[in-house]
């Protein structure tokens, strides 16, 4: 297994497998932030400290060789090409921050890509578990197991009063951020989302677009995550997030039913128009592609379109990102060329579905 | 259209605020927007990171501190002995330099934590096993003591006696582990 494995293997397990409530929930993620006790935080550590941390992680990795999570590979950010970094970001294996502004960054990834450990990002260590569908509890369990495993080698920065110490005060305590990626076209079409987002914010949860902070809600995909990390137990944080997500799921389902009742033919028309665009266009921008993919996915979930795999949205949302497109083209593309590639890729992917029938 | 605040300069910023579901249209010139702090809310997407917001939050504290400092003249600079980050630097970048900063700035941090974490300031979650030996025991003793009180108030003395013995043995273990290590 080499780093090419992660670049070339386009589909991570969270994209292809179906999890619970996968008609609305694309994926669930748990992240734990941890730091070595003996080194300064990445805010101001010396390059030597950063390098020592990488060496320690390499040593730990060797000892972990056989464990329940399968083999892990360590990728150093500096060894990667610009496009390769983009691909890893688009697959949510690493954060944009690790790719762009962490010269001593590295990342440990399992073969099926459901676990990744970022090294020397904002904190020394960030354990991430990404599972398909609504599986927050399962992801927390996995993250905790990895944490326990690392803890047997590393003395984490911790104090009794503040819990796990992190470089940013917003992560202190549990260091836990749980986030759920949701496809909410029903709430958008019924204009309920603008009412719902402020309510979610009031509960101490954040709502963001698909690529995290400051990103747009491309393809009607939203990320809901906890903001409070201190004063609650890990289980309670996840439980609270779970509760709100369940509420959203039922709101989205009833919005979809309401749409079916009030504007069945309009909705079916919209779904098929979008399908038509995806199946026939020769040039398509990422925004339009995301919008159409969302419509088609809604059409599949609501039964208008049959015999097309559900994961087409998850998959194509990622595969049509600029990094992926260019990686497949074998080099940098201008935006216009990307739009042509994107259109071709989507057409071909839809044809594959037809062949399956 | 003129700015609704000053009624002099043309309004260049137009936006809709939704607070608790209540919608208001706002038209401001750049100057008034800045003064009202509305620019903060506007830039959500580009160039305005969470970091600025955080620094803003922390700064509320310092303006208050500044007054104190003026009153008592210049006090010594608050600094972490381990990584030499000053409290001012921490406020500016919104990141700690090392784990010791938490101890160095602890007096200042409680209100910060409370604001960031919905009123919470103390950890209530996982404890690493390695350092946690003592803490785990103390927490369990705490729990047993609460149970004990409960049982005594309900006059279930037989059960209370069992719990009492449990506490004694845990306390013995705790003393042992503190002598032994850490």
Brief descriptors of the model:
heterodimer, A: 357 residues, alpha+beta, two-stranded antiparallel sheet, globular, B: 182 residues, mainly alpha, two-stranded antiparallel ribbon, 58% helix, elongated
Brief overview, please?
The complex is a heterodimer of chains A (357) and B (182). In chain A, 49% of the residues lie in helices and 15% in strands.
What can you tell me about this protein's structure?
The complex is a heterodimer of chains A (357) and B (182). Chain A has helices at residues 3-8, 13-16, 47-63, 82-90, 96-101, 136-151, 185-189, 193-202, 234-280, 286-301, 312-319, 322-329, 335-356, and strands at 25-34, 72-76, 106-110, 115-119, 125-132, 158-159, 163-164, 176-183, 205-208, 221-226. In chain A, strand 6 (158-159) and strand 7 form a beta hairpin. Chain A has 357 residues and is of the alpha+beta class. In chain A, helix 10 packs antiparallel against helix 11 (312-319) and helix 12 crosses helix 13 (335-356). Chain A is 49% helix and 15% strand. Chain B is mostly helical and 182 residues long. Chain B has 8 helices and 2 strands; from the N terminus they run ββαααααααα. Chain B has helices at 30-36, 38-42, 50-71, 87-93, 101-104, 106-116, 129-153, 157-180, and strands at residues 13-19, 22-28. Chain B has a two-stranded antiparallel ribbon. The model of chain B is unreliable at 40-48 and 61-71 (pLDDT under 50). The chains are: A alpha+beta (357), B mainly alpha (182). At the A-B interface, helix 6, strand 6, strand 7 and helix 8 of A face helix 6 and helix 7 of B.
